[in-house]
Amino acid sequence: MPDCTHPHPQGSVAWLDTLLTRQQECLQFYQPLLGWTGDPDPNDENTRYAVQQVHGKTVAGIGYMPEDQPMMPWTGYFSVRDAEATVARIPELGGKVICPAMNAGEMARFAHGVDPGGAHFGLWQALSFHGFEIYGEPGCLYWFELVTTEGKASAEFYGALFDAEVQAMEQMPDSYWTLHVDGEPRAGIFRVDEVETPHWRPYFQVADVDIAVAAALAGGAHLADPVADTPFGRMAGLTDPNGVEFKLAVPPTGR
Predict the structure, then answer these.
(1) pTM, to two decimals
(2) What domains, with CATH codes, occur in the chain?
(3) InterPro entries from the entry (predicted)?
């Protein structure tokens, strides 16, 4: 059970959450699907934030958003050493700041931005809470991927913003790039010809994709990409009952 009890490297995804009106329905969908546990915080009058855990280790957050506010689909927060300095660079690199750096209690300083292609992303400067505490297990984030029509420009934006190395995938040099931090791939950027709204999507690790897909469909999800074997594992794409895209994956043998 690999854990992450130390700050995540700059440019890697440190946290993942979603805020929506149908918070309880969202919990009822993802908890049995991914083995998550965690109840809404009764002391949080605004978002009723529910930190989700696997084996007692934090993996994600699900919060409440009032009906008069737009829902926030799964949002990844990239680890940064200095939130203010990183926020200042967003417009310099062609993006937009939609929420300046502020404190999430004593846990972290966070911010929200939009990249040049229009995709929303978050920043996370850890204080007392580093973010994910576990990975490499069913129920954890396996991969994080941007779907956009502005692939190369987006890759250059994130590479410059986080001082990360950008590599074009050998098999798809004109349509897929990866962000590398400390020599390891941390996120992917997938260029498509059309997408209604550019967005980041999470891949959640599961023990058995076929069983998990059946459970997700029974829970109200819709199948977007059927189960398939890939060089990166057995995967499937779905949209949850709120219409938010996500993927399920089993890593390839030996990984």
Answers:
(1) 0.95
(2) 13-126 (3.10.180.10), 141-250 (3.10.180.10)
(3) Anthracycline_SecMetBiosynth, Glyas_Bleomycin-R_OHBP_Dase, Glyoxalase_6
Secondary structure percentages of the chain, helix, strand, coil, to 5: 15, 45, 40
Instruction: Tell me the CB-side half-sphere exposure of residue 155, using CA atoms within 13 A.
Output: 23
Count the alpha carbons within 13 Å of 218 in the hemisphere toward its beta carbon: 8
Give the helix/strand (H/E) hosting 155. helix 151-162
Contact (Cβ atoms closer than 8 angstroms) between residue 215 and residue 190: no
Q: Indicate the helix (H) or strand (E) that contains 28.
A: helix 23-34
pLDDT in tens, the chain (255 residues): 555 656 899 999 999 999 999 999 999 999 999 999 999 999 888 899 999 999 999 999 999 999 999 999 999 999 999 999 999 999 999 999 999 999 998 999 999 999 999 999 999 999 999 999 998 899 999 999 999 999 999 999 999 999 999 999 988 889 999 999 999 999 999 999 999 999 999 999 999 999 999 999 999 999 999 999 999 999 999 999 999 999 999 999 755
Please state the φ and ψ torsions of residue 30, each to the nearest 5 degrees: -80, -30
Helix/strand/coil for 210:
helix
Q: Are 117 and 190 in contact (CB under 8 A)?
A: no
C-alpha 198/C-alpha 177 separation (Å) is: 15
Query: To 5 degrees, how large is the angle CA 59–CA 61–CA 66?
Result: 170
Write out the two tokens for 132: 């994910």
Burial class (CB in 10 A: 0-12, 13-18, 19+), 230: exposed
